[in-house]
Design a protein that fits this description.
single chain; alpha/beta; DNA polymerase, domain 1; 13% strand; binds S-adenosylmethionine
Length: 326
C-alpha cells in the first residue's frame, strides 16, 4: 500500500501537539543505579552503549552523566519520543546518536552509523509514561481512539484488532495474558456484539466501560480491564517477539565481555527474558564449544524499597543481566 508521506507527517505533527497539550510526562527511568552497575558504565575508560529502547531518554541521560567518556546510541520505534529525547539530551549532543528503528534491527541500525560492536546494551520495553499520556488509547480513562501503537507508522492499531478479529480470536488473545477463560469469552462476545450494534468501540474509555459492565465493577487494586488492554497493546506492538528478537540481536553486537541488561514489567516479559537468556547461555552455536552468554543474575534483581516508594511505576520492575563471553 502506498503511504502519503505528507499525510503521515501531518498525523505525526497532530499527535505530537496533542501529547504536548495533554502535558505528557517524561518517563521516570527504573532501577537506574542497578542498570549503571551491571553495564559497568562508571568503570570504563571509554565505551559505546546502545539503549535499544531510548524512549524519552531517561536511562541514556543517566549513562551520559555517569561517565563523560562514554557515548550512547539510542534506538526507538517512536519518532515522537525520539524528538523529546533529542531535546532533553541536547547538552550531550556530541556523545549521543538517536536512531529511529526497531530494536530487532540493531545490527543494521548500528552499521548505519559506522558502529560494529558495543560495550553494553540496555532494553527497557513496554510503553513509556510519555506514550501513555499521549492520547493513543493506552489508558482506561483515555477518551481517544484505541490506537496503542508505539510506532505511529505501523499499520495495525488496537481498533483494527477489535474490528477484524473473531470472538474466538479475541478470546484467545485475552487468555494468553492470563484473563480467566470465562471472562475472556464474555468480553470477546460483548465486543463483537457492540461492533455489529454500533459499528465499533470508539475510545479506550468506552472499551474499559464495556469490560466493567461485563465483569461487574469489583473493588480491588487492579482495574478489571487491565489484562484486555495489555493483550491488545502487546499484540499491536508485537512486544514479546520484539523483546526476544531484541535480546538475540543485541547479543550479536556486544563485544566479548560486553553486558546486556533487560528490564521487564510483567510476567510474560520476564518469562521471555529468562528463557531467551537460558537459550543463549546453554546452547553453543554450531562448531563452538562455549555458549555465547553467561547469566549474571540467577534470580531477577528487584527495585529497592525506597525506589518502590518513590516511583510506583517501578514497583513491578525486574532486572536481568548477562555478559557475552566469547
Ligand atoms: C519504557 S520506555 C523506555 C524508557 C527509557 N528507558 C527512559 O528511561 O526514558 C520503552 C520505549 O521502547 C520503545 N520500544 C518498544 N518496543 C520497541 C522496539 N521493538 N524497538 C525499538 N523501540 C521500542 C517504545 O517506543 C518506548 O519509547
Amino acid at each position: 500500500m502506498a503511504i502519503d508521506i505528507q499525510w503521515l507527517k501531518r498525523v505525526i505533527e497532530r499527535r505530537k501537539k496533542e501529547a504536548d497539550e495533554a502535558g505528557a510526562r517524561l518517563h521516570p527511568p527504573a532501577m537506574v543505579n542497578e542498570v549503571l552497575e551491571f553495564l559497568r558504565v562508571r568503570e570504563l575508560k571509554k565505551g559505546v552503549f546502545v539503549d535499544m529502547t531510548v524512549g524519552t531518554g531517561g536511562h541514556t541521560l543517566a549513562i551520559l552523566q555517569a561517565n563523560p567518556k562514554v557515548e550512547v546510541i539510542g534506538i526507538d520505534r517512536d519518532s515522537n519520543s525520539l524528538e523529546v529525547a533529542a531535546e532533553r539530551l541536547a547538552d550531550y549532543a556530541d556523545r549521543v546518536t538517536l536512531i529511529y528503528g526497531d530494536m530487532r534491527d540493531v545490527k543494521r541500525l548500528l552499521q548505519q552509523v559506522g558502529v560494529d560492536r558495543v560495550d553494553g546494551c540496555l532494553i527497557d520495553p513496554g510503553p513509556s509514561l510519555w506514550q501513555m499520556d499521549s492520547k493513543r488509547g493506552f489508558s482506561f480513562l483515555d477518551d481517544s481512539p484505541l490506537d496503542m501503537r508505539m510506532d505511529q507508522s505501523a499499520q495495525v492499531t488496537a481498533q483494527t484488532l477489535l474490528q477484524t478479529l473473531s470472538a474466538d480470536e479475541l478470546e484467545r488473545l485475552f487468555v494468553q495474558v492470563g484473563e480467566r477463560r470465562s471472562d475472556a469469552r464474555r468480553i470477546a462476545q460483548a465486543i463483537v456484539k457492540e461492533r455489529s450494534r454500533s459499528g465499533g468501540i470508539p475510545t479506550a474509555k468506552a472499551l474499559a466501560e464495556l469490560i466493567m459492565q461485563v465483569k461487574g465493577v469489583r473493588g480491588g487494586r487492579i482495574h478489571p480491564a487491565t489484562k484486555v488492554f495489555l493483550a491488545l497493546r502487546m499484540t499491536v506492538n508485537e512486544e514479546i517477539d520484539a523483546l526476544k528478537g531484541g535480546i538475540m540481536e543485541g547479543v550479536k553486537v556486544l563485544k566479548r565481555g560486553g553486558r546486556l541488561v533487560v528490564l521487564s514489567y510483567q510476567s510474560l516479559e520476564d518469562k521471555t527474558v529468562k528463557e531467551t537468556f537460558a537459550i543463549l547461555a546453554q546452547q553453543p552455536d554450531e562448531g563452538e564449544n562455549r555458549p555465547l552468554l553467561r547469566i549474571l543474575t540467577k534470580d531477577p534483581i528487584l527495585p529497592s524499597f525506597q525506589e518502590r516508594q518513590q516511583n510506583p511505576r517501578a514497583r513491578s520492575c525486574k532486572l536481568r543481566a548477562a555478559e557475552r563471553i566469547r
